[in-house]
Amino acid sequence: MIITCPKCARDHKVNPDTLKPFADAGKKTILASCKSCKFKFPVSLSSLLTVEEKPVHAKRRPGAVARKVCITLSKGGVGKTTTSVNLGAGLALAGYRVLLVDTDTQGQSSYILGKKPGAGLTELLTHELSVSDCLTEARNNLWLLSGGKSLAGVKRIIDKKSFGAEFTLSEALSPLDNQFDFILIDTSPGWDQLIVNVLFYSTEVLVPVALEVMPLHGMSEFIKSLGAIQKYRSEIQLKYIVPTFLDLRIKGPKMLYDQLKKLYPEQLCKPIRYNESLAEAPSFGKTIFEFAPGSTASEDYRSLVRRVSGNESALLKFK
Ligand SMILES: Nc1ncnc2c1ncn2[C@@H]1O[C@H](COP(=O)(O)OP(=O)(O)OP(=O)(O)O)[C@@H](O)[C@H]1O
Ligand SMILES: [Mg+2]
């Protein structure tokens, strides 16, 4: 890390390990002395120890096929888009090459990432542009295939197809199969032909479920619909259930969490706690790791990155 002298503006390299003993002893600030001009000035330890991890550059095994994870639940407002964007950004920070596909007409992924793509999923599905022209590089290692209003027209085209309509998305995305480690697909609420397409394309399902009674009911309905798809497509598996909006001050959510633990012990992930930074970050076009790196929300999404990637040391250094 770098400390800049406020008097002579010289940058000085500092090893964070030398500062940890001060922080562990409960010190909030240290007195730094500039090696060039000898000026002494206070530096807050929390600002030094809360560093953004530098993105690692991805190393892909040649020919490896991307894991295709859709983030879906028919119920609206449960944290699908928030989870897609922050899980994608976290995996990218951990060094994986990630493509985020937004299949929602609300097109919120680009807004959260502070991007205004000229083209996206619509142009890919209608073959108006080449695959590479439809992708937006949103961050290091993170690409976006944006959604938006124009997808409504695409849904009509899919609906009118008399044969193989459910494979429209799979066919359009197939050239991207071995260019990424993860392809994450965010879906809209409800149930339509585009969501069926997503379920015919993905191999893993991640369900974010707000810890309230209604979304739990919505989840069991969704699991029935997924079962109907699995009759035709056995590759798709419900892999992760991510409780969202956990507020430990209230009794109800904890009870619902325990209920989920009994029903889905293998799929249940650590919850994402309620945190206002998650609602604030989008208006700054920032992910949670950029907006509030030291928050509980950042911690919870980093834990989800480890769970989904199976890489237990991913983003551990990140504070
Ligand atoms: N853990 C959380 N704590 C606080 N606010 C959150 C949390 N997760 C998401 N939010 C906020 O809740 C709202 C709904 O989240 P989000 O848009 O991710 O849900 P969604 O399931 O994608 O909704 P839709 O079904 O409309 O697509 C957003 O304003 C988001 O910023
Ligand atoms: Mg959404």
Describe it:
With 319 residues, this protein is of the alpha/beta class. The chain has 2 domains: 2-49, no CATH class; 67-309, P-loop containing nucleotide triphosphate hydrolases (Rossmann fold, 3-Layer(aba) Sandwich), CATH 3.40.50.300. 37% of the residues lie in helices and 17% in strands. The chain has 14 helices and 11 strands. It has helices spanning 20-24, 45-49, 80-93, 108-112, 121-125, 131-134, 151-160, 168-173, 193-201, 213-230, 251-263, 276-280, 288-291, 296-309, and strands at residues 2-4, 11-13, 29-33, 40-44, 67-71, 98-102, 136-139, 142-145, 182-186, 204-210, 237-244. The strands form 3 sheets. A 7-stranded mixed beta sheet has the order 7-8-6-9-5-10-11, with helices on both faces. Strands 1-2 form a two-stranded antiparallel sheet. Helix 3 packs across helix 14 (296-309). The two termini are 13 Å apart. Residues 76-82, 104, 106, 188-189, 244-245, 272, 274-275, 278-279, 282 line the site of adenosine-5'-triphosphate.
Summarize this structure briefly.
The protein is an alpha/beta fold and 319 residues long. The protein folds into 2 domains: 2-49, no CATH class; 67-309, P-loop containing nucleotide triphosphate hydrolases (Rossmann fold), CATH 3.40.50.
N-to-C CA distance: 13 Å
Give the C-alpha Rg. Answer: 22 Å
Q: Could you tell me the mean pLDDT?
A: 89
Supply the number of helical segments. Answer: 14
Low-confidence stretches: 51-55
Largest sheet: 7 strands, mixed
Mind telling me the CATH superfamily name of the largest domain? P-loop containing nucleotide triphosphate hydrolases
What general outline do the C-alpha atoms trace? Answer: globular
| Strand content bin | 15-25%
Element-level helix/strand string: EEHEEHEHEHHHEEHHEHEHEHHHH
